[in-house]
Structure formats: C-alpha cells, structure tokens
Amino acid sequence: MSQNSDNKVLDKNFKLMAMSAVVLLILFVYTLYKGGSHIEGGSYYLGIGFLFILLFVALIVKMKQDKLKEYFNKNKKNSAFGTQLEQSKANASNEDLNTNIHAVNSNVTFKDVAGIKEIKEELEEVVDFLNEPQKYLKHGVKLPKGVILVGPPGVGKTLIARAVAGEADVPFFYQSGASFVQIYVGMGAKKVRELFAKAKQNAPAIVFIDEIDAVGKKRSGTSNDERESTLNELLTQMDGFEGDSGVIVMAATNKVEVLDEALLRAGRFDRRVHVGLPNIEDRKKILELYLDGKNHEINIEQLSIDTTGFSSAALSTLINEALLNMIKRKSKILDSDDIEIAKNKLQFGKKQIKILDEKQKEILSIYQASKAFISKTKVSLFDESIEKISATYPSYHELCENIKRDLAGFIGVEVIKKEKYAINHKDLEDADTLADEIVNKYKMSNSKEELLNNIKNDLRAELSHNADEINRLKEIMLKNEVITTNDI
Ligand code: ADP
C-alpha cells in the first residue's frame, strides 16, 4: 500500500513538472511570437535553459522512481520507530556493548522457504508491521512483542525467522538459548541485556533466540542459580520495551511445555506458531526447490510419498547425499538409485532419520483417524496432540470428553488392529492428569481408575461400532496426510 502511495506521489510530481514545462513552453513561444525581434538575447537563453533544466529534472525523477521510493520508505520506517529509538540509544550508551553480539542482514526471503504456506501467511503480518509501522501505530495497534515457533528440529524454524527479517529488510540478531547459560553468575543476564540494547539500537530489528528452553525452563522457586537470573533478565527485558519499539523477538523450541509460564504471558511470547513436519505437498515443494536446476531423473511426486516422516532438513540432507553418490559414480544425472543409497545411509548412518514403512504409516493413520473421528477436528498425520475443548468453567461431561480425545488414538488402533501399540505415551499421561483433576481437585468422581476404565470402555464400543468409518478416514489420512472437518 505504501509503495503504491509513494509511486502515486512521484507520478504526481512528475506530471506537475511536465505540465509546468509545457505551460512555460507555450508562454515562451507566445512571447516569441508577440515580441518578435524585441526579445533580448539574455532572457531568451535564460528561458530556454530553465525549460531544459525543468524537463531534465522531471525525466530524472521518472527514471529514478524506484530508488527514491526505497529512500522514502526507509526514512519512514526509521522515523516511525524514532522516539523509542532515541530513548533506547541513550540507554544503550550506558551499557558496555563490547560483546560478540552482531546482527546479520538476512538474505533469505519467503521464496527460499518451500511449502508451509499457512505459517508464512501467519507471519506476513509481522513483516508488514516492520515494513509499514505507521499503518498500525496510527490506530494504536501494537503487535505482539514475541512470537514463539514450536516444532521438532529441522522443520525450518530458524529459516522462517531469517526469512521474516529478510522480507522486512531489517537486521537479524541470532542467539541460541544455550549461549546465555554461562558459568559465572550474572554473565548470562548481562548478555541478555546487551542483546536487547543492541537490537533497540538497530531497530527495527528481529531478535531470534533458538532453543529458548535452554534458558526458559520453568523456575524451581527454591534456588536462584545462574539460569534463573538469566531468565529473570529476559522477562525484564521483554517488559522493558514497548510494542512500538520496532524490535520483534522470535524464539524457537520443541518443548513448549517445559517453558516457564511467565514467558508465555501476554506482552511477552504471546503468539505461538506451530511448525510441524512437512506434509506430502510441502515435501514435494521442498524437493522441487532442492532439485531445481539439477540434472535428474527423479519422480518427485513418488519421492514425496516415500519420504513420510522426513523433516525439511532431512530432505535437504537426502538430496545432498544422493548428489555425492552421483559424483562418486562419475555421472552427471541424479537418479533414483542415488536416492535409495542415500536413504539407506541416512537410516543406518550417524544422522539416523526415522523412515516410516507402510505398516508404521498405517498404524499412525488409524491412530490419528480415530482421534479425528472422536474430536471432529482437523488432524494431520504428525500432530502430537489434539485440539481440546477449552472452557473457563468446564463441565464434568466436557472434562471427560477431553480424556476421550486423548485416548481415542490408542483405543482406535487396539480395536482395528486387535493389538495394543506403543505410540504416544503423552496421551496416557494427559488423560491421567485430567482424571486426577476430576477426582482429586474437583471431587466430581470417586475413583480415577474407575473413571478411566469407563471412558475406555465407552470408546471401545463407539469405535468398534464405527470401524468402517475409521477405516475410511484412515485411507484419507494415508493419501493426504491430513483429515479435515469436511472429511469427517
Ligand atoms: P530448525 O530451526 O527448525 O531446527 P532450520 O531452520 O535450522 O530448522 O532448518 C535446517 C535446514 O533445513 C535449513 O537450513 C534448510 O536448508 C532446510 N529447510 C528447513 N525448512 C525448509 C523449508 N521449508 N524449505 C526449504 N528448506 C528448508
């Protein structure tokens, strides 16, 4: 929108100049015609000279339109965060900034992040805010200060954060959570202070804290060790700047449940983005990206089906290993044998990658299909937990329904495969915790064991009665790696 409006301003200026030049030209010709030989040489040349200068300037403005627009944009971005910037610069000067904390200019954009369309869309707002702060600030809208990316390793959390910085063309400050955990008390906290001071100094900017759980684990409340003082400093720093400072803090973790609740409170990391393992479509796009420009005979469609369970990073390693094999056999064309050899290497080598065979994929599909059937919500093949009913004052029935959602996967597999499988122990733990609350906290029931057994028996009856439906949903899951509400 701002680019368009800047273009419009420039176009208007150009038109005005061109029109003035034309009017002057007409006036000039008219005076020439009227005045004839009375015109004095000096004023004649002055007029001609002025006309040419005007036309020349108009032409330059038109030609350099893009450069000028960029300049205006940059100025606008910095001045929007101006007041805060001055303040933080003053604060920063009191700090010792002689650290190794440096920003990089990210050259990654969303184009380099294949697939995961929904996640990119979710983060576009952050990019837009950094690009055009005025659009939000004039309405008094503040964006979340912190965005936490939750997902397993290698799914592109760092890449996404870099792409946000790249899209917004702002400096990117990378720190891993572990780097804050120092041996000497107070050093970690000092590093956190310095990181934020530097970021504010360079605002608008993105701060990215990778594996934040290293520093952000729940505080025990008994000891006040180095890690806790570092976490306290992180909380203080996040409170210490306003949403209009132009600093957005992004963080990544694969264990959000171990994080201290204070970190996830409003005004800190209050936006959560889940980045799961890539689905079939995503894997196809990622493979296309990695094979782009390479001479190959690979059926990308088939390979994306055969790589269920691979993270994006694993796909990148797979193609790299396959290319190494191609070079080793002195060929110039990558083929499916290279991929097979690379796959075996990865499965049994040092960088073990979990590859799901057909049977494992079927079990996981029945497990997730049963959850989708019971909860009537969208479920993907690699989802680790399911959407729950969240009510401020949940009824007994709603609490039991949430236990059902936890246990549906296990019981579904047991009913369909006539055998118990060890899939996701977290389901059992969650069901147990909730049953415990029903019995011991809210005194809604007398016995936890009895409650859980009743729920399991209900589930067995409901799922075996609907076995055909579960099998139908399983087939959809096998094909699409997702079951949507339309499928249920
Ligand atoms: P995480 O931070 O989740 O552990 P990274 O961002 O470090 O994952 O990803 C590791 C590598 O995997 C990246 O450097 C990139 O090569 C590749 N990668 C991850 N996600 C994608 C994606 N969506 N598109 C293309 N490459 C990806």
From TrEMBL:
Cite the entry's keywords alphabetically. Answer: ATP-binding, Cell cycle, Cell division, Hydrolase, Membrane, Nucleotide-binding, Protease, Transmembrane, Transmembrane helix
Ranges for the AAA+ ATPase domain? 143-279
Which Gene3D superfamilies does the UniProt entry name for this protein? 1.10.8.60, P-loop containing nucleotide triphosphate hydrolases
Domain of life of the organism in this record? Bacteria
NAD recorded as keyword: no
Keyword Metal-binding included in the entry's annotation: no
Q: Which GO terms describe its molecular function?
A: ATP binding; ATP hydrolysis activity; ATP-dependent peptidase activity; metalloendopeptidase activity
Could you name the Gene Ontology cellular component terms for this entry?
cytoplasm; plasma membrane
Q: Which residues cross the membrane?
A: 12-32, 44-61
Which PROSITE patterns does the record match to this protein?
AAA (PS00674)
- Give any single GO term for biological process: cell division
- InterPro entries reported for this sequence: AAA+_ATPase (IPR003593), ATPase_AAA_core (IPR003959), ATPase_AAA_CS (IPR003960), P-loop_NTPase (IPR027417), Peptidase_M41-like (IPR037219)
Q: Which family does it belong to?
A: Belongs to the AAA ATPase family.
This protein's name: Cell division protein FtsH
> Where does this protein come from, organism-wise?
Poseidonibacter parvus
